[in-house]
């Protein structure tokens, strides 16, 4: 890591040559859309710019939420911002995303979400009816998820300096005793389970944004997953890893886990549940469903001895009815995800460079 003296040069100007190695950011002297895509560029921005600037051991885990000890309690704390375009889409809205995304980030640490903050950044000229519609959707999603909006903020920027409505939410929740869920706990022998069909959110957004018709309606899977996680923890508190595969899709989630734990992951392409409408849309658009964003799914790394019982509990929950075992964690090829194709071959699933569709959440 670069220390604070190498982050700036003369006169306090950023010293790009002093940033941490490796230094892929030198190739991007300006921010590009891919830096917000949850893939390689995002990881490089965090690792080489933000982490050295902030420092501190809590940030080093780089999980969906930070797990903190405070006053004898174990808390999960997370924050996220939402810039989705369009604001309303089949199956949800930016308000639903703001609640469910933060609730899910907390749940991926095993926490029971409790309170959220909400910040609105409004562009001058946006209709108040649109803002009201977003606020009502957000409030309804919070009530459905069992969390309370405890504090908030509103800012307005000049016309042309925003896109209607941006949102930021932060959340806190309690982590039960004995629960230790984080990417570094992935272990060879773990069974990899996904909670349902993938790719629905990304294709739903694309269909509205680009005015595309795929012969059948596609709705986002946007949902809060805390109750599903609670059902899994009721089977065993010893879940090793949970991750919601949002930006970068299932491929990015698996790649980040493999890298964090330095284990290999083997996935059966045939076992991954891809709904026909997503498969057809991806075939037309030249996309890989594994890289398409989700907003109401999770991937779990579960010790083999608990896998059958956890899978049964997931399938008994409405949000996990189509859960499936898609692979396993192995000692070979550490840090790499390999997919077995239906034709008997294998292919490496790399982290995406940026994102197939920006402004997805």
From TrEMBL:
PurM-like C-terminal domain residues are 188-338
Q: Name one GO biological process term.
A: protein maturation
Among Gene3D superfamilies, the record links this protein to: PurM-like C-terminal domain, PurM-like, N-terminal domain
Domain PurM-like N-terminal intervals: 64-175
For this protein, the record's NCBIfam families field holds:
hypE
Family (UniProt):
Belongs to the HypE family.
* Name of the protein: Hydrogenase
> Which species does this protein come from?
Streptomyces rubellomurinus (strain ATCC 31215)
């Amino acid at each position: 890591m670069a220390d604070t003296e190498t982050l700036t040069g003369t006169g306090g100007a950023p010293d790009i040559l002093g940033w941490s190695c490796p230094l892929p950011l030198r190739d991007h002297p300006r921010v590009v859309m891919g830096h917000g895509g949850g893939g390689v560029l995002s990881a490089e921005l965090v690792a080489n710019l933000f982490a050295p600037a902030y420092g501190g051991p809590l940030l080093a885990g780089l999980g969906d939420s930070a797990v903190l000890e405070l006053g004898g309690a174990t808390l999960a704390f997370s924050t996220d911002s939402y810039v989705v375009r369009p604001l309303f889409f089949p199956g949800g809205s930016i308000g639903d995303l703001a609640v469910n995304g933060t609730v899910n980030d907390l749940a991926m640490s095993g926490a029971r979400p409790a309170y959220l903050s909400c910040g609105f950044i409004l562009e001058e000229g946006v209709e108040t009816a649109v803002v009201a519609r977003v606020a009502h959707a957000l409030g309804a999603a919070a009530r459905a998820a069992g969390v309370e909006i405890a504090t908030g903020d509103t800012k307005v920027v000049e016309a042309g300096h925003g896109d209607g409505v941006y949102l930021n939410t932060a959340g806190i929740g309690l982590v039960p005793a004995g629960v230790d869920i984080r990417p570094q706990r992935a272990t060879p022998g773990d069974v990899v389970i996904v909670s349902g069909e993938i790719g629905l959110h990304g294709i739903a957004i694309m269909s509205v944004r680009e005015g595309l018709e795929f012969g059948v309606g596609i709705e986002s899977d946007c949902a809060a997953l805390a109750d599903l996680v609670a059902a899994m923890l009721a089977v065993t508190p010893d879940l090793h890893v949970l991750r919601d595969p949002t930006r970068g899709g299932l491929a990015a989630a698996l790649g980040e886990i493999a890298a964090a734990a330095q284990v290999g992951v083997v996935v059966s392409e045939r076992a991954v549940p891809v709904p026909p409408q997503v498969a057809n849309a991806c075939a037309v658009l030249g996309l890989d469903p594994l890289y398409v964003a989700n907003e109401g799914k999770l991937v779990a790394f579960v010790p083999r001895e608990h896998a059958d019982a956890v899978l049964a509990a997931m399938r008994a929950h409405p949000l996990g009815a189509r859960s499936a075992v898609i692979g396993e964690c192995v000692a070979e090829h550490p840090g790499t995800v390999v997919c077995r194709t239906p034709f008997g071959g294998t292919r490496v699933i790399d982290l995406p460079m940026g994102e197939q569709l920006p402004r997805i959440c």
